[in-house]
Amino acid sequence: MPDAVLNVEDLSVTLDGVSVLQNVSFSLQKGASFAVIGPNGAGKTMLFRALLDLVAHTGVVEWQPGVKIGYVPQRFTVERSAPISTMEFFLLQSAHFWRPDAAFRRGLDQELRSMGLSPEVLRKGLGELSGGETQRVLIASALLRKPDVLLLDEPTAAVDAGFEETVYALLHRVQKERGTAMLLISHDLTVVYRYADRVLCLNKSVVCQGRPVEALNPDALATLYGETSFYHHEH
Amino acid sequence: MPAPPHATFWIALLVGLASGSVGPFILLRRMALVGDALSHVALPGIALALIYHVDPFYGVIAFLVAAAFVIFWLEGRSRVPPDAIVGLLFTASLAVGILMLPSGDVIESLFGAFPTLSVPLLAGILVVAGVLTALCFLLAKRFLFLIVSPDLARVNGLGRGYDLALLLIFALIVALGIKLVGTLLMGALTIIPASIAKNLAASMRRYVILSAIFGGAISVAGVWLAESFRFLPGPSIVLLGVALFAVSLPFARRRLA
Description:
- The complex is a heterodimer.
- By secondary structure, chain A is of the alpha/beta class.
- Chain A contains eight helices and nine strands.
- Chain A has a six-stranded mixed β-sheet with strand order 5-6-7-3-8-9, with helices on both faces.
- The two termini of chain A are 34 Å apart.
- By secondary structure, chain B is mostly helical.
- Chain B has one domain (7-256): ABC transporter involved in vitamin B12 uptake, BtuC, CATH 1.10.3470.
């Protein structure tokens, strides 16, 4: 496909003899918004790790040559008492850690604004940030690289319920304004219906795939989550 | 050719600076105990060098660099808990070293002494300590990235080579300081300045700078105390550092309040 930034064919991952992903195939189009849904333990995070070559896998993962990838993991591994300022977390993306240049600072100001963060957040310790701030800092940091594709692993997992909508609205604006393709793991079907062009239902292998209104039919959702699940109604 | 006057102070200053520069990364990687145990591996190196009439310094370097590779290999094997194995392996090497070491050299090897060095070896130690300090500052961003999020760091093109680089820098700094501070206490010299600085700094850049300054200052002051009161330099440096750490504790509570 000429406009695909990512092509995946027959991707499988086996850990310690246990199959955690089987024959996953899909493609991500330039500038598109693609959601991955599935129950806990379905292999969603493992799919991302395989796409990023962080785990051994078989099959084809073909990124468009020269494509810039931004990744937003679920969390940091850093301890709360570590003396690392939020500014320094952003400086990890800068060529000059000890003396950042003006161009970097301008780019940073722009990304802070795009994620609705005030410059005061830069002085806070990385471990002092609230869940919502952490998530937006992670996204802003990924955006600093001006990525062509953004991989988001449950970007609202640690965010207050009322704030989820804001994060998705901000991400949607980035996608529309900059043409950044989004590959998004989400639990929230409402978000998938509202923001995703395509959806992939995953439970170790692909259960359904396509436009959300077509792919997420009652049968597919029952297979994915069990008989008791509810699904989105069109009004 | 005898070493110039104040040679011990110069070693203390530059090795202290280097120890303080690498310490923050070892501490944030939660490798303080592994680092401490690493210095014990030097003992069989010293013993073998003495048996074969080689300068013990080279035995120390060979054993510590080998130990850095062992830790790196263990870290890459997720199914093996590295701390238990490192503890066992390195304590065993301490025991082997003690059995092999001529009895007259035991105290000096374990707790350090005022080193008597030739001018070329002294110059070599000082230059290498300076280079290792500079490397810690130059690679600080990469080391920090791998600590904060190894996955993000790899997506940004940083491989495990930087983990190995940190371990090798650490092993070499320990090797440089062992003559002065001793195999039992040298690991502590890398951890103590970083522990003090962590209580006072609010950012990583200040943390590394403060830790380096404390490393140099504690080492020089410890050597001065040892000379003045005829103590061994190793215990003097370590005890002075621990006392400063106690003084710094209330500042940590204030910083995290």
